[in-house]
UniProtKB/TrEMBL annotation:
Pfam families: Isochorismatase (PF00857). GO terms for molecular function: hydrolase activity. Residues 27-225 form the Isochorismatase-like domain. It comes from the Bacteria. Keywords: Hydrolase. InterPro entries: Isochorismatase-like_dom (IPR000868), Isochorismatase-like_hydrls (IPR050272), Isochorismatase-like_sf (IPR036380). This is Isochorismatase.
Length: 235
């Protein structure tokens, strides 16, 4: 572990906190489980692929989805989609500009599935059986990073969810932004550290940035193995 740049410190200066998982009050939230982030065919693979592979992110997200379904926890997807009108935005940050420039998460329109299946905006094929089962809640798309402008919080509250197991892409962007907003909204949040990943570019390692903030603010920080075990033991 000494050579692992993401390993937790041997002695944390922060008090320990945790999240109790129950079937009635806990939901699994996955951000952006989409081809453009998680597949070798995705437009971001050149910068996220190394991190996705290192953390076994694709398989771990799949394990979380399967465990939640097996043990009766509600599942929520917060996807990222861009429509042609979104390309008319007049300003944005560096990553927003890049996403628009490379056509990330592009769809033909809010009411059209023309060309959607298998596109970068589509869900990873191995997740479709869980996401498209008629029970998983697919929130309206978030447009920048956080869920402030989609209906995820409403969907969680309407189902009595007060505790969230959070995973998905990308660690320092949408996943972190969802963590912060959910905390502000009064949810308890456990982040699954190896069911996310991030870009590595000359400007910095996004996963390193995220894992530090996860330690600082998340109510719990688990591995996939730990999250699956807790779901199985949920009352």
């Amino acid at each position: 572990m000494q050579n692992n740049p993401y390993a937790d410190p041997e002695q944390s200066a922060l008090p320990a906190t945790d999240v109790e998982v129950t079937r009635e009050s806990t939901g699994l939230v996955i951000t952006d489980p989409q081809i453009d982030f998680l597949s070798e065919r995705g437009v971001t693979w050149p910068v996220v692929g190394e991190s996705v592979t290192e953390h076994n992110t694709v398989e771990n997200i799949g394990r979380l989805l399967a465990a939640a379904k097996r043990h009766g926890l509600a599942v929520f997807i917060s996807p990222h989609h861009y429509y042609p009108t979104d390309h008319g935005w007049r300003f944005g940050g560096p990553l927003e500009k890049l996403m628009h420039d490379i056509g990330m998460f592009d769809r033909k329109g809010p009411y059209s599935l023309d060309g959607f299946e298998g596109s970068g905006s589509d869900f990873m094929p191995q997740y479709r059986e869980h996401i498209l089962d008629g029970e998983t809640v697919i929130a309206s798309p978030h447009k920048v990073y956080g869920p402030e402008n989609n209906d995820l919080v409403l969907q969680l509250r309407k189902r009595g969810v007060s505790r969230v197991i959070l995973a998905g892409m990308s660690a320092n962007l949408c996943t972190q932004a969802h963590l912060f907003e959910l905390l502000e909204q009064g949810f308890e949040v456990a982040v699954v550290r190896d069911a996310t990943a991030a870009a590595r570019i000359p400007d910095g390692d996004g996963y390193q940035a995220a894992i530090i903030n996860f330690r600082y603010v998340a109510n719990a920080l688990w591995t996939t193995e730990e999250a699956v075990r807790r779901m199985a033991a949920a009352a």
